[in-house]
Amino acid sequence: MNTNTLKLAVQKNGRLTEETLAFLRAAGLEFESYNRKLRTTCRNFPLEILYVRDDDIPMFVSTGAADLGILGQNVLNEERPNVKKLLNLRYGFCTLTLSVPKESPVRTINDLAGKIIATTYPRSAKQYFDSCGVPITTVTLKGSVEIAPALGLADAIVDLASTGSTLTLNDLRALSTIYRSEAVLIANGQSVRCTATLQSLGQLITRFKSVLSAENNRYVVMNAPSASVPKLRKLIPTVTSSDTQQNGYVRTQGVVNRDAFWSILNRLNALGITDICLLPVENIIAKQP
Ligand code: PRT
Ligand code: ZN
């Protein structure tokens, strides 16, 4: 294997797996998915993918067994491993949430003073309650945390939620959000400095950023009254227009932030712009490494 081959640890089989593999493929990497083979090499990039339990990713990366890892920000917050965070990856969104039984008299966090909190995230929970000056005791569970109050094991829980339907199904209600989380790319501090891998790492980050940037943007094609083009450029600075006019209209196109587009739509209409086509962008490569 090439000396500049990077090792990336990803979750083998869990909530982040599918979106992680889709993200890597969107970055143009070609490889085989996990199929009991715990490591695969990319066909078109010096990258080896290691398929592991998400809980082990901090250890793999902090020891240098892997150069890079993809995992939830929540794991970083809880374990605080000695790794460097490189990118937020904009998927795997969830919140670490404090919840109590629906019928509980608890209305504010202060009502939980002296109570027992069940959680898989004891450190995050303790830090949160400490920062609010509320003394509590935690009981740590590896999973099925939502069941703890009904069994009389705890008065409240601190657990991840995304849709919130598991809380509802277990007759719990959210009291507050401790933090938001999403998938992140982490690196071993040494790998980031080592010159042999630095070039591959730079190229990989460029690819990842181009996917993230493309996801946030749309390519927009529209017909604009030629007199409106200067005003249109103020709304969408990347706009270019064709030289040929038809009935006073020119064909224009540009790249626009996906969310910003909807907020300027009224102003585009006011300029008399018609036939707007909003298209996905596959990659935006801002700067070569
Ligand atoms: O087997 P391995 O150890 O690798 O996986 P795991 O079982 O420890 O983790 P996994 O696959 O459940 O989650 C991996 C990562 O996905 C987490 O560390 C988070 O970063 C992220 N993530 C995003 C979530 C959720 N959303 C989520 N909803 N992790 C867990 N949940 C749980 C939640 O706690 C609840 O119990 O899913 C349940 C359903 O949630 P609702 O709100 O959609 O009903
Ligand atoms: Zn896990």
- Tally of individual helices: 9
- As a percent range, the share of strand residues is 25-35%
Secondary-structure class: alpha/beta
Q: Tell the overall outline.
A: flat
* Helix/strand order: EHEEHEHEEEHEEHEEHHEHEEHE
Largest sheet: 6 strands, mixed
Major sheet: order of its strands? Answer: 2-3-1-4-11-5
Mean pLDDT: 94
Overall helicity: 25-40%
Could you say which small molecules are bound to this protein? Answer: phosphoribosyl ATP, zinc ion
Report on this structure.
The protein has 289 residues and is an alpha/beta fold. The protein is 30% helix and 31% strand. The protein contains 9 helices and 15 strands. The strands form 3 sheets. The protein has a 6-stranded mixed β-sheet, with helices on both faces. The site of zinc ion has 3 residues, from loops.
Keywords:
289 residues; binds phosphoribosyl ATP; alpha/beta; six-stranded mixed β-sheet; five-stranded mixed β-sheet; 15 strands; flat; binds zinc ion; 31% strand; 9 helices
